Each structure stands twice: as structure tokens, then as C-alpha cells.
Request: fold
Amino acid sequence: MNYVLSDSITQPITTDNFLAVEITNSKQTSHIIKVLNEKYPLPHHKHLRRVKSVLVEGRKTLHVLLCAVADAADPTASCHHTILKDTGIPSEALAAESYHCQAASRQPVTRAQYDEACKLWPTFFHEDQELEKKLGLIAMSEFDKKCMNLAYQLSNHGKGGFKCGAVIADTDSQRVMGVGYSMSDAHPLKHSVMVAIDSVAHQQGGGAWSSTARITSQYCSEISPASPKAKKKKMETGREEDYICTGYTAYLTHEPCTMCAMSLLHSRIKHVHYEMATKSGALGSQYSLHYDPQLNHNFTVTRKQLDELPSD
Amino acid sequence: MDLFGEANKYWMSKALNEAKKALDRGEVPVGCIFVCNNEVLSTGSNKVTETKNATQHAEIVAIDEIIEQCISKGEDNENLFNSTTLYVTVEPCIMCAAALRLVGIGTVVFGCHNDRFGGCGSVKNVSQDDIPQYGKPLNTISGIYSEESIELLKQFYKGENPNAPGHKKKIKV
Ligand SMILES: [Zn+2]
Ligand SMILES: [Zn+2]
Reply:
């Protein structure tokens, strides 16, 4: 399975155009950087290193960024001379001809983006180890597989348009906390996820739908006998205890629709795994509610990759 | 259409009454009423605490009641929802806006906007976006008794957490 991440993480870097020049007197390098940073800062490109070194026939040469072409008053080579005049850098410290080059327009967030960016021009980068772990193919645990199998088993009972199955579980205590399958034949809102959330509520002494109570007792006890302990879970700080799915993982046969994805968000789900993407899905397809910066709760999402699906 | 006409104001005042009931029960004060041909189909208010189910917003509670009625009468709910208007004190959230499209509601009239979760333009435009399997977009009318709707929410959050430093008066539904 793979994490469903935002484009800023998974997409290749974008680039901007710059004016650069070779430093011919390397002893002047630190002075050149200092005056350029003062008079010609790069306010939109703070992630770029000002100087890069390039090996030319075994000889190290240094190159400096003069300005971003978009920021330059006169984006032609004559700009080079204007900059010399403005900064007082002696003309013999730099090559006579400046040149245009490309560099990353944003700070890279992954090592892959960083490597790509540095081929153009070196940048600053802070590796996020947790993020790096989410980039490749991720293996499912035995408990994940067990929950996913139960979700498929449940989906067979589905009635209505989509035959979906949903399992909500606490991976820490390895307990199934709620189950659901599509009942949208009789009730247009009884999607498997809505049913599963109500099932969790039933397990905890609440619940809105009587049909959910039945399947909850049927399936949740099967894998994990409901005990008073099951109702207690590790609480995080703050007011999260008000929400029934805090810390839980949802296992879904299909990518949830907008209603279902938002209901998982309202319930403060920690992680969602789904197998089949759907056109109207809201965790990567139609919308990506799980990493929307405007929403007050974010969660992680994984999905099965196409090449993992059995071919029939 | 007389947007702020007497009929709309009348029904919205009924929705406000529902919201007040939720406040009295310690729930987030959002109330709604579903009206078809000048007849009340159902009323609803937030029941998240009571049911321990975070999806039990006023709209979901009231839709549920209508569907139950249809099932017991053996009637089809699709045509009914089509000619029904929902009056709700706060802009439906992303989940509820989606639910309203799934049942095929005719028109939605709401009071104040919902900056945190609004699904009719504030955060996402679920009401208007082209979404497969979600039927036609929703007709929406906003701003009727919006001050009164916000006031109820303020009362709720004031009562709950009066000392929260720099607590923004944002709406949580
Ligand atoms: Zn759904
Ligand atoms: Zn809602």
C-alpha cells in the first residue's frame, strides 16, 4: 500500500529562472555573498544556496546567483553590470559573461526532490524521517490484513449501489471497534462508513441506528470480545476525548465519498486505509479532505496500489 | 423568489427554536426543519453528545426521521426530498452538504456561514461542485437570521470555555 500524499510532496520540483555568473577570484567569494545578500537578496528563494561549485575538467569552479530573472529590473546580461555597479564588487572578481540557469522554486520536502533540485542548483533541506518512511511501498501488518479481510467479508452483505465494507479498529489494542456495510437500498445515507461509525458509537453505549446495533453485536464480538476495557482508550491531550474514533484506524474496501470522509474527520479518525479508489472519493480523488489545511483535523491515508490488486 | 420573505423568516424562526432546544440539552445549537408544500416533514437538532456519534448533526437527524416515515408508509423518499426545502440555522458542513445532495433535496436556506466546516462555499463547495453519483447541485439561500444563529453558538462556546485565551469565535458544528 502507499500513502495518499499531497502534490507538493509527490510531484517533481518546479523551477524558476536565474541570472548567475562564475566567480573568477575565489578569495572574494565570502565578500561577494555578503554584498549580494545585502543589495540583491532572494526573498522568494531563501531555500537556495547563493554559491555552487562545479567541477570543470577536474578543477573546482564557483558560481554565484546574481538575481531571479522575474525579480530583475532588466533581465538581460546588462543586469550583471548594474549589479556590479550597485554592489561595488570589482569586475575582475567575476567572469565577464553572466548566464541564465534554473533552480528549484520551492524548498524540497523529500530527499528525492532535494536530489533533483541539487542537479540544478544546491538548496537547503531538512529531511523529515517520518515523511520519508511514507514515500515507498508500505507493508500491511497481520492485524491490518485481518481487518481488511473482515471488511471484504462485510461488503458481501452490502445492499444498494456500491457494495462496500468498513471496519474501524484500535490498532494499539488490536480490537475491532465498529463494522459496517452498505445499506443504501433502504436509506440513502447508510453507506458502510456511516454505519461503521454508528457501530463504534453503539459499542460505547450510544448509537443512532438500530440496524447498526445488530451487526455490531454480530461482528465486533467475533474478533474481539467487547469488554469494558475496549471502551477505554488512550486519550490524547485536549478535548479529543469527546470524539469516538480518536486514535482509531478505518479499513475500507472503497475510497469513501465526501459525506463518509467528512464523517471520519468529524470522528477524529487517525488513519484510513482503502483498497479501491472511486471517482467521487474524497481522500485523494474528488477531494483530499485528509490533508486540507483549512480543516481542523488531518489524518493519514493509505491505499492499495493498482499493481497490488489481483489480476483476473 | 422573495428571499427574505415572510415564509422563509417564519420557517427559519422555527429552525432557531430547534437550535435553542439543542443548547438546552448541552449540544451544539444548530437546528433545522424540512418543509414540503408548507407542511413540516421533520425537525432536527444536533445530537452528537447524546448518540456519541459525531455524524448526528441536525440535518442528518431530521433526514433520518423523514426516511423512517417513508419506510413505515411504504413511500418513495426521492420525489419527496426533491420538492422539499431545508431551513437550517448554520451553513451545512461538508458531510451534511454531501448528504443533502445524496437524498436530492430541493432547496437549502441557511442562517450564518460555517468557517470551519462549511460545505456550501465556506471551506468546500460540495453544494455546487460536479461530483459523480451526487446528483444535481443544491439551490442555496443564506443570511436569514444569521445574527441570531451566531448568537446561539456564541452562548454555547461561552458557557463551555469562557476563559480560553484568544479563543476565536469560530463555528464548530
Ligand atoms: Zn459514502
Ligand atoms: Zn453537518
